[in-house]
Amino acid sequence: MTRVIAEPCRGPACAACLAVCPADCIGPTPADLCWPRMRMLCIDPDRCLDCGLCVDRCPAGAIHAEHDLPAEWWLYTLINAAFFRLRTPAHRPP
Questions:
Q1: Does pTM top 0.90 for this prediction?
Q2: Cα angle: 75, vertex 46, 26; to 5 degrees
């Protein structure tokens, strides 16, 4: 199982979840070129340990277990996965 970041996420304006993730599976990070333009963060489903630390830290309540994600936000499961599948080294500064 994995966690999913959904609509209430405030992205780089908050990013509280980045500091507590032991798997470093939340992105983008400040090192990514897209960081200033992102409106939300995403969780890499292939690297998430499902520890739940990010859930406890998120002040917006934007992070859910995949199986508990509200039905109207199912698309965020795809958005989170797509961000990491489409991300390339070109998205990071040299």
A1: no
A2: 75
